[in-house]
Amino acid sequence: xxxNEMEKWFEDNVLVLEKKYILHQEPWRQSGFSGPEExxxxxxxxxxxCMHISGSFLDVGCANGYLLESVVKWKQEQGIExxxxxxxxxxxxxxxAKERLPRYSENIFIGNALQWVPALKFNFVxxxxxxxxxxxxxxxxxxxx
Length: 145
Known about the structure:
There is one protein chain. By secondary structure, this protein is α/β, with parallel strands linked by helices. The protein has a single domain (about 5-145), classed as Rossmann fold, CATH 3.40.50. The protein has helices spanning about 5-20, 25-30, 35-50, 65-75, 90-100, 135-145; strands at about 55-60, 80-90, 110, 125. A four-stranded parallel sheet has the order 3-2-1-4, covered by helices on one side. Helix 5 links the parallel strand 2 and strand 3. The chain is globular, with a radius of gyration of 15 Å. About 30% of the residues are buried.
């Protein structure tokens, strides 16, 4: 995959996903999840359950920041402090995330998961391989790890 094909892949994804997510009013649907909120909680709370100590959490593909907000709340209930960080390729989604988490707005970035290089290491990271073209996934995972 050459650079032009890769750039087009990311541009196409932003156009489709951002428009699709922002159409919804429910925060879990704006984060790319379909179905009722109870299902969202059942599928997303296990991410928080993996966090056993206070620390930083990066959500790659954070969309509107609803998972970040939820993880912070869920872990606070257990006496664990999570400092949220987010990365998304969609400018409008990042804007929503920053509005959702104004205290942490400086921790939410616009960027391409394949090329973005964070300035720090994180205690916890959530990522999906669908955020990069299929041909790039093995290299992407090696770099992330």
